[in-house]
Structure formats: structure tokens, C-alpha cells
């Protein structure tokens, strides 16, 4: 399958460059930072905390089922996948495209683009079988023509551009710019923090590469030209550098009149502590509690409570926009009135078996859930009598509904009896 064959138009759009938003992406060679390090997307992911934070968020979103729900009157049902029509339920729960991607792979890829580039662009071509494709955010951008119509320009690796109508693109973004059409990734704001961490890692590596003796002062008898000085330096580094040469004896001839190591001072060793502080800043940029990155002290509360805080404080900012945008882009206007998308957040709230059983018991006894619905959540088969709702006998509606009719007063009963007799007579 060639991407070029899926474009619905070959029209060359005349862009209004003044009105079109400008992307703020790190160039391929990276941002230049005050630390002297260049920070690119690839370089940032070499920082352990960044790599772990990115995977926690994208993996958690990817493993949540993304379902299509339909409301019919007061009844809500899940739309079943249909491999013949390749409906949206099929694309989100079985396979999103003809390449055989899994739903996990699809959702993880979208969130990865979103985190580092601020934009995730999901294309639903109108040509060929229904499918969902993720366009590279660093080569796809929203543009306006001179009539004010929104398009998405995709640039091939060859440099040739093609245009996609906005109705075919679901555009997710975080940290929107002033236009509201272009997102900005974490790296845009955290590049100085990432640069400091990369610089600290490099300094740490140099420290060990030099045999934990970062520098020394050597004085030679007589004047030396540049080539001679380099020879002495290389000779010293060959014999002393590297962890395998740490604490080895240095032997000099009588041409060296003075050798003085420049020892690291306590105030210089504080840069190792700064690595820990910078990791804390990275946690804040990604909105993750430190204990999820194997840092800090974990609070003594239940796993469910921790995940609820993480879900509402971090993940919902990625889930809610996707649910809302999917309803606009992936449903017809007629469907939008009673059909919607939802991530099954409960799949993330993994309780222990005892707490899970108690939760089901309460919901069944209070009439919120049938036994079969509870069994279905644990992939257990239904049983014939399991679709009934139950409620404790001492709980009754406050008014109306199934409340028994109050007993009439004796006088009223007598009157009603007389009227009945009269009617009968």
C-alpha cells in the first residue's frame, strides 16, 4: 500500500503563509541549550527519566480499551466490531489499518508523537478500505489557503508535498500555541532541563574515563612546542585514563619537574546531586509522581487511590481530548447525537482480588450491576439467571415507583364500599 495513492486530491493548494501556524519543533540536530548540549528528541530519550516517563504515559494509554458506545433511550450498549464494514469499533479494537497494526501499537505511537512534538495526526483516508494511519508530526502541518480553508500539508522524504482536507485528519495537540492550531511538545519547554542532564551525564562519563582523576598540572623542564605538549598529554592520558587504570602508579622521567593533580572539590561534587534535582524537574514536566519513576518515597495509600490521582491529574489530559475529537471527526452528524467514544479507565485501576470482589458485591447488592456483568469483567461465562438486578429488600423508592399504596382510613373505606354497592345496585 502506497500512501501517495490514498490522497483524495491532487490539487496544489495555494497556502496563505501569513495565516498558517508555524511549528516549533526541535531541528534534526537539536536545540542549542545554555549547557552547551544539543537537545533533540532522540538525545532526550537517552535520559533514563525521560525515557521511562514517556513509556509510562504512552503504555498506560495504549493498554486502555478504546470503545465505541451507543445510547438508545435509557439503554447504553457497546458497538461490536464488524470486520466486513470495518467500522470504527473494529479499527480501534482489532486492527486500525491494512498493515496489521495492533490497537496498542496505534495508541502508543500517537501518544509518543504527542509528547515530544505536541501534535498527533491521525488520518482516515476516504479512498480504499476504511483505516486509520498516523502521519509523522515533523513532516505534517496545518495550513490555510486564501479562502480560509484548513488543509494538512504532508511532506515526503523526497521533499514533495501533498495536501489532505482537514475533515480527514483527527488532530490531537498539547500546549497549543497562540493560534490554537499547533501544539508544542515537552521538549519545547524542558530543553534547558534536558540539556543540563545530558551535560551532567557527559561530565560523569568524563570523570570515570579519566580514571577518576579529572585533571592534573605538569611542568616540564625547558620550552615545548604544541606538538610536544600534545605528546606528553596523550602519554599521561593513555597510562591513567579509564576505570581500569584508576589508582595506578604514575612514573615520570627527569624531564617532568613538577606534577600536581587537580583534585575535585566538595563544591564541584555537588553536580552529582544536581542530577537528582534535575530528574525531579523532569517528573514535573511530564506530570508524573516521583514514585512511578522509582524515585522519592511512595505514599502509604492503596494502589487504586494512587492510580486515581495519576489518572485524573495526568492521563485525563490525553484521554478526554481524544474522546471528544473522535466524536467530531469519526462520526457522522446523525451518529453524534447518540454515539460516543470512551477509554475504559477502570482497566488501569487494578485492585487486588479481595477489593475487587468486595466492589462487585456492593454494586450487585445495590442494583448497579448484574452478576453476569460482573463475571464479564473477569472474562467469565454468563449463567442463565445472572442477568437479573438485585437490591436489598429494606430499600424502597422514596416516592412513586413501586411504593405500596397507603392504607385508606376506615371512613374512606366505608364510603368507598357504599359507593361500590350503589354502583353494583
Question: In words, what does this structure look like?
Answer:
- The chain is of the alpha+beta class.
- Helix content is 39%, strand content 15%.
- The chain has 12 helices and 13 strands.
- The strands form 5 sheets. Strands 4-3-13 form a 3-stranded antiparallel β-sheet. Strands 6-5-10 form a 3-stranded antiparallel β-sheet.
- Mean pLDDT is 81; it is low at 412-425.
Secondary-structure blueprint:
Layout: E1 31-32, E2 38-39, H1 41-44, H2 48-62, E3 66-72, E4 75-78, H3 88-93, H4 103-117, E5 119-123, E6 133-135, E7 140-144, E8 150-155, E9 161-165, E10 169-173, H5 186-209, E11 215-220, H6 226-240, E12 256-262, H7 266-286, H8 303-329, H9 333-336, E13 339-343, H10 353-365, H11 371-377, H12 410-424
Antiparallel strand pairs: 1-2, 3-4, 3-13, 5-6, 5-10, 7-8, 8-9, 11-12
Helix pairs in contact: 2-4, 2-7, 5-7
Looking at this protein, list some descriptive labels.
three-stranded antiparallel beta sheet; alpha+beta; 15% strand; 12 helices; 425 residues
Strand content: 5-15%
Number of separate helices: 12
Low-confidence stretches: 412-425
Radius of gyration (Å): 33 Å
Q: H/E element string?
A: EEHHEEHHEEEEEEHEHEHHHEHHH
N-C termini distance: 88 Å
Counting helices, strands and paired strands, the structural category is alpha+beta
Q: Which sheet architecture does the biggest sheet show?
A: 3 strands, antiparallel
Short description:
By secondary structure, the protein is of the alpha+beta class. The chain has helices at 41-44, 48-62, 88-93, 103-117, 186-209, 226-240, 266-286, 303-329, 333-336, 353-365, 371-377, 410-424, and strands at residues 31-32, 38-39, 66-72, 75-78, 119-123, 133-135, 140-144, 150-155, 161-165, 169-173, 215-220, 256-262, 339-343. The N and C termini lie far apart (88 Å).
Amino acid at each position: 500500500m502506497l500512501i501517495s495513492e490514498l490522497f483524495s486530491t491532487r490539487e496544489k493548494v495555494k497556502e496563505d503563509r501569513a495565516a498558517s501556524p508555524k511549528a516549533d519543533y526541535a531541528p534534526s540536530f537539536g536545540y542549542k541549550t545554555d549547557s552547551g548540549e544539543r537537545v533533540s528528541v532522540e538525545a532526550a530519550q537517552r535520559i533514563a527519566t525521560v525515557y521511562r516517563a514517556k513509556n509510562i504515559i504512552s503504555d498506560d494509554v495504549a493498554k486502555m480499551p478504546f470503545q465505541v458506545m451507543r445510547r438508545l433511550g435509557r439503554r447504553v450498549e457497546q458497538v461490536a466490531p464488524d470486520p466486513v464494514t470495518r467500522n470504527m469499533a473494529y479499527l480501534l479494537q482489532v486492527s486500525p489499518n491494512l498493515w496489521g497494526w495492533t490497537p496498542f501499537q496505534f495508541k502508543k505511537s500517537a501518544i509518543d508523537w504527542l509528547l515530544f512534538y505536541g501534535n498527533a495526526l491521525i488520518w482516515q483516508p476516504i479512498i480504499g478500505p476504511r483505516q486509520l494511519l498516523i502521519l509523522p508530526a515533523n513532516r505534517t502541518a496545518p495550513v490555510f489557503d486564501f479562502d480560509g480553508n484548513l488543509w494538512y500539508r504532508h511532506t515526503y522524504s523526497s521533499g514533495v508535498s501533498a495536501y489532505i482536507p482537514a475533515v480527514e485528519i483527527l488532530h490531537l495537540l498539547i500546549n497549543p500555541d497562540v493560534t490554537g492550531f499547533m501544539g508544542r511538545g515537552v521538549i519545547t519547554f524542558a530543553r534547558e532541563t534536558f540539556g543540563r542532564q545530558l551535560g551532567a551525564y557527559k561530565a560523569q562519563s568524563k570523570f570515570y574515563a579519566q580514571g577518576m582523576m579529572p585533571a592534573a598540572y605538569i611542568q616540564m623542564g625547558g620550552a615545548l612546542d604544541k606538538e610536544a605538549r600534545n605528546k606528553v598529554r596523550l602519554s599521561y592520558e593513555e597510562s591513567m585514563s579509564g576505570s581500569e587504570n584508576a589508582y595506578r602508579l604514575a612514573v615520570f622521567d627527569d624531564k617532568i619537574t613538577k606534577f600536581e593533580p587537580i583534585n575535585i572539590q566538595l563544591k564541584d561534587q555537588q553536580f552529582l546531586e544536581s542530577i537528582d534535582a534535575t530528574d525531579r524537574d523532569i517528573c514535573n514536566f511530564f506530570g508524573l509522581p516521583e514514585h512511578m519513576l522509582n524515585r522519592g518515597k511512595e505514599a502509604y495509600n492503596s494502589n487504586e487511590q494512587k492510580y486515581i490521582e495519576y489518572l485524573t491529574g495526568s492521563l485525563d489530559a490525553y484521554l478526554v481530548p481524544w474522546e471528544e475529537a473522535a466524536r467530531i471527526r469519526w462520526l457522522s452528524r446523525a451518529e453524534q447525537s447518540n454515539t460516543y467514544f470512551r477509554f475504559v479507565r477502570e482497566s488501569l485501576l487494578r485492585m487486588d482480588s479481595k477489593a475487587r470482589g468486595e466492589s462487585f458485591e456492593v454494586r450487585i447488592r445495590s442494583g448497579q450491576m448484574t452478576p453476569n456483568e460482573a463475571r464479564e469483567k473477569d472474562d467469565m461465562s454468563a449463567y442463565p439467571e445472572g442477568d437479573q438486578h438485585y437490591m436489598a429488600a429494606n430499600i424502597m423508592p422514596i416516592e412513586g415507583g413501586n411504593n405500596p399504596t397507603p392504607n385508606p382510613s376506615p371512613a374512606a373505606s366505608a364510603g368507598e364500599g357504599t359507593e361500590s354497592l350503589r354502583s353494583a345496585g
